[in-house]
Every structure is written in C-alpha cells, then in structure tokens.
Amino acid sequence: MENGVQDMITIRANDDKRNYTWVDVRDVNREDLSVLTEEYSISSDLLADILDQDEQSRIERGDDYTSIIVRIPLDDEDQDSPLIQNAIPLGIILYKDKVITICQGDSVVLEDFSKRRFRQYPVATKEGFVLSILGRSALVFIRMLKYINRQKDIVEERLHDVVTNDEIIRLLDIQKSLVYLTTSLTTNESLLEKLSKTPIFKLNSEEEVDFLNDVITDNKQAIAMANIYSSILTGTMEAFSSILGNNMNIIMKRLTIISLALMFPTFITGFFGMNVRLPHQDKFFAWVFLLIICIFVSICGSLIVNNWDVSKHQLKKRKKKKDKN
After folding, report:
1. Among 54, 102, 132, 248, who pairs with 25 as Cys (CB 3.0-4.6 Å)?
2. In what way does this protein cross or attach to the membrane (predicted)?
3. How far apart are CA 69 and CA 159, in angstroms?
4. Domains along the chain?
C-alpha cells in the first residue's frame, strides 16, 4: 500500500510481496531534488547523472548503497508517435531496507509495477525488483520496435504512390528512433552482463538466476530486431534516393531534348531577322511556310537526339551482355 505522497515522490511500504520500501520518484522538480538530497542523503553528482538524458546504464557501489542506472522506455505505442527520444535513464538506488527509483519523466514500465499489473515478476527482493524492471523494459522495447516497423511500412506504401518531403522526414525520424533504441538496448546489455558477474549484486535464489538469463535473452532479441529494422530502413532510404536521382536524370534529359529541339527554329528565325531578305516575303503565306519549316526541323532534331540517346543505351546493354558471356 502507499504510505504517502510528497510532490512526485511516492512511498510504497513493504508488504507480503516485498520485503523493502519502494520510493518512487518521477517527473523530478527542484523541490524533489532538495528532498532527495536532504532526507535521503543522495549526492548531487549522482542525481545529475540520473537526470542526464544521455546517461548510459551502469552499476556502482557506495558506502551504504548500490546505485544502478538503466535505460527504460519513455512510452509505448498508445501515444501518437513514440519516436526520436523514446528511452530515458532510470536511477535505482538500493539501500538495506528500501529501493529508490528516480526518473526525469514517466514510463509505462514504472506505471505497470506501481499498479501491480504483472505479479509473475520476482519483486520480493530488491535484486529481483531490478531484474523485473529490466525484463519489463526489454519486452516494451520489443513492442515499440514492432510499432516502429509498422510505421515504416505505412510510410513506404505512401512513398510508392508519391515521394514527398514529409514522408522522407518521417523515415528520418524513424531511423533516429531506431538509433536511440539500439543504443539503449546495447547499454542495458552491458549492464546485464555485469549484474551476472559482479559480487556487489547478489541474486537470492535460483529463480532470480533463471529470470536474469531470460531477461538477457529478451534484450538480445530486441537488439537483433533493432539491427534488422535499421538495415532494412537504410536499404529502403538508399533505394528511394536512387529513384529520386533517376527521376531527376530523366527530367533533365527531357529538358535537354526540348532545348535542343528549340535551338534549330531559333537559329532560323534569328538568321532571317538580321535584315536578311525572306524568300517569297511579298507573298501572304510566306510566314506560314517558314513556320512549317521550323516545326519540321524541331521534330527532326528531337527524333535525332532521342534516337541517339536510345541507341547509346542499347549499345551499353549489348556490351554488358558480351562482358558477362
């Protein structure tokens, strides 16, 4: 049950499920920092590290506590767009009779444990509670990766119809999101490896050992998924970049053909415009005759330039076939 709430500091007393008190601190403000420093004797340097958005996962031993920093999901797919900054550091400070968790924002992981939605996790001990947070985070990360992949597929379908700047920017946002997720999962993996070996984090039962192995497996699965999605997205963006470049080349080729086609009638009209006597200029339809000649020359010039380009392309294909044979 909850013993008390002070600003965003929630104290959850020990019960039949836990043998420790959980001090849950979220959306930290200046008043919370003062309380944490004065009443709980947490150093300002440690608080600064926990509240640093780019802080990596790690474990350290203090005089009478053990501090652990992990990366947890900022939110899940219920939000409009869990992209870009999708993971935040969570500080976990283990004392003899209590656990303090400190987070700059809020997370679905903390909300799940505060409402006891997952009773199958080994939260009876402080060490089991840490593993439970890491395990739940890995599963939420996997869910977020699947959501991000679905968003990527939607953007790709739109790009198949028409390529717009908004959709390209959306793909860049997805790519950034995957980078943040991969970084968070990788640093959590390093922490999990340390937890399995370090003497300052001792597991209390075989159940916790098995659960740690399961968490490591889930985290590695999430890393593999993130790498696969990143590779696919990179290939997709390169393919669309090539398509855009090819379309630009086609447009430039057409403009060149049009420019060359217009060059011939411009030359003719320019020549006769320099005080040069126009044949049959006294006749009424002389200008019509000249116009027909200009159009004919333009068409012939366009066909010659276009056929020359097509012939050049066909010669390249034949040469490639000969090289293969």
Report:
1. 102
2. Multi-pass membrane protein
3. 40
4. 2-243 (3.30.460.20), 249-319 (no CATH)
